Amino acid sequence: MKPHLRRAAWAALMLGVSAVAVQAEMAAPTTPPDPPKFDAQGEPVFVNRADILEYKALPAYSQPEWVAAFEAAGKLPPLAERLPKEPLVYKTANMPDGAGTYGDVMRHVIGGRPEGWNYWAGQSYGWGGIDIGLVECLTRTGPLFEVNAADLQPLPNLAKSWEWSEDGKTLTVHLIEGAKWSDGDPFDTEDIDFYWNGIIQDAEITPLNGATAATYANATLTVVDSYTFTMSFDTPFPESVLYAMAYGNFCPGPSHVLKPKHPKYGGESYEAFQKAFPSDYMNFPTLGAWAIVEHRPDDIVVLRRNPYYWKVDETGQQLPYLDEMHYRLSTWGDRDVQAVAGTGDFSNLEQAENYVESLKKAADPNSPARLAFGPRTIAYTMYPNLSGNGWGEPDARAQAVRELNRNLDFRKAISYGLDRQRLGDSLVKGPFTTIYPGGLVPGTSFYDQASTVYYPYSVDSAKEALKAAGLEDTDGNGFVNLPGGEDLNVVLLSQSSYATDKNLAEGVVAMMSDIGVKATLSLLDGKDFDNARDSGKFDWIVLRNGTELITVVQSTAQLAPTGPSTDWNHRANGAGELDLLPHETQMVELVNGFIGTQDAAQRIELMKQFQKVYTENLDGIGLTAYPGALIINKRFANIPAGAPIFMYNWAEDNIIRERVFVPEDKQIDAELHPDTLPGKPGEAGPVKAN
Ligand code: GLA
């Protein structure tokens, strides 16, 4: 071969190579790197559920002396008559510091505000543990972080036991017998019937946290007697229903006050029903350990002990040990500041921006609070709205974004465009945050690294992916244009009440600008944000992950669009239609398969496949994951070791607050309403014995 020919052949070869190179410019997907090592402080002491509690009658019961004074004054029936036949008894051996003593207050600080007390019509109490303490549920999952894997099932609570029929299609539930609401009204299947028929089966009403018939596998509920009901299903053993009966869902309301206001039972209207128990309505009947006795708007909500509480310790002392609960109405950031300073008692340290300062303060041996990091369970996802058929009623601009969201190349562009390392470091430097591609959270029980597809940070790949999605910067202003010529403009919705949500969203906007995608931030607060989220009024949304991406067994149905309104980024349009993408259909099948089987090995396999489909298709785009820390004042006893701030539920549930106490020599003088109890529903504040 002559030299010049050789050169030509070489050039041709080069051309071929570069043509291939152009096509291959998108970086190959990989698996995410190992998270930096971060050891949780304090391991749980693992036990079986039966080691924690039982239901039984004790030879004698006792209560604080000042409550006995109410009996003496004829204002309260004797304690034995207020308690169930067989109260729920917490076992001493499972209490880290044993049976406690009465008195003192837990001073919470929260960023939300109570809208009113009609949780069943969707009213928020302000979060931060208020509602977790006020609405007791049929089962309980928060404390499961310390339950042995082999015994993993929800704890009984208002439901003291249950059994499946042989074919697995009927579940019989037995309620605790003789428990009473905080105003003395009996708790029984009348309350269950109202929850089911007045709330769950009524399409006009959505309770807070969104329970619907689908939450309970579309069961048929039948009341058998005052303390027994059955649920029948189409499929055998839908065990997830037992998890759905825990906090967030099957937490019945007091039918004796709710029912008369409900339009189906003679109430005026749905609106009037929702507003019937505004935030200045005091002593709203509860099954929780404390009831609301005072609300000063933007200042504080005060709760006093519920003299009818149905749980006791093994020595017969009626719970709770703490007489009062405070919820200071401030900001979420202030919760951290006050907890480390000792002016507040409790915080879920979850906003990574506050870590360094909080750690520094807590490291001082004289610090009033202890701070313990748990597993890496705080994670954030950015969801592209995947509805193409009208959920959230998009205008033309938003509809164009929806079409792009439904295009995998576009979603890849977003993922390639995110420098997740820098995003995490911008919150806090150190071994806290980890690269989180999305889906199941790294380090949790069903997570499998090898099944996790990660489109790594690469601006070139992002631009290539945009091109593949048909997007180019045709007017040279640095931002890609839509086919019509105008700039693509995506609106990113985020919460304004948490610094972390806002910072992450701002980071995303900046990184998108680097790849030529114009994104605009829309910040909403509290209930406004929740409404926009639930009604689909967003192009993209930044969300703190729910429990389903951690435990899988809790809120399982929310992992995919398994129903018209279960998924975070894809719900049905006004006509009830869901236009699922092929990968979403696969996800739904995998999730339903998981819900429908008890086979442990199969469940693991199904979740591997789920993770692969979810991350390969970028159903949600993971941002970052990091550990949270529980900050709690050192004077409190019975705080279980290794309690995570978030797993099956939030720490306010996990630490079993009704069992928490302050030893006498450490009690502080912080009660605002000493020696008082909740008064009559709707009447003013707390009452005295005399
Ligand atoms: C808010 C807080 C969490 C936790 C929950 C409890 O979401 O951010 O830390 O307190 O309320 O519902």
TrEMBL record:
Its main location: periplasm. Residues 1-23 form the signal peptide. This is ABC transporter substrate-binding protein. One of its GO terms (biological process) is peptide transport. Belongs to the bacterial solute-binding protein 5 family. InterPro entries: SBP_5, SBP_5_dom. SUPFAM superfamilies: Periplasmic binding protein-like II. GO terms for molecular function: peptide transmembrane transporter activity. Residues 154-550 form the Solute-binding protein family domain. Gene3D superfamilies: Dipeptide-binding Protein, Domain 3, Periplasmic binding protein-like II. The keyword Signal applies. It is found in: Periplasm.
